[in-house]
Amino acid sequence: MPHVTEVDVQSYEPDALKTEVTPQRWNSLFDTARSSPPAATLWHINSTAAGGGVAEMLHP
């Protein structure tokens, strides 16, 4: 059975991504975040901690 490994990752300020999306998408992101519970946690799970070979196609 596969196991799960926890990997520490660097955090980034959201503004680092602001130039990568449209203003409408940027505003939508923060509207959604504001309507989330105050202590909400965002989890992003990927199948590799290092190396390569995984391409994520994240669609809206």
Report on this structure.
It is a single chain. The mean pLDDT is about 80. It is built from 1 helix and no strands. It has one helix at about 25-35. The N and C termini lie far apart (about 30 Å). The protein is about 20% helix and about 0% strand. It is mainly alpha-helical and about 60 residues long. It is extended. It has a domain at about 1-35.
Question: Helix and strand string, N-terminal first?
Answer: H
Oligomer: single chain
Return Rg in Å: 15 Å
Largest sheet: none
Number-wise, the strands total 0
Shape descriptor: extended
Global structural class: mainly alpha
Residues in helices, as a percent range:
10-25%
Distance between the termini: 32 Å
Number of helices: 1
Low-pLDDT ranges: none
How much of the polypeptide forms β-strand, as a percent range?
under 5%
Average pLDDT taken over every residue: 79
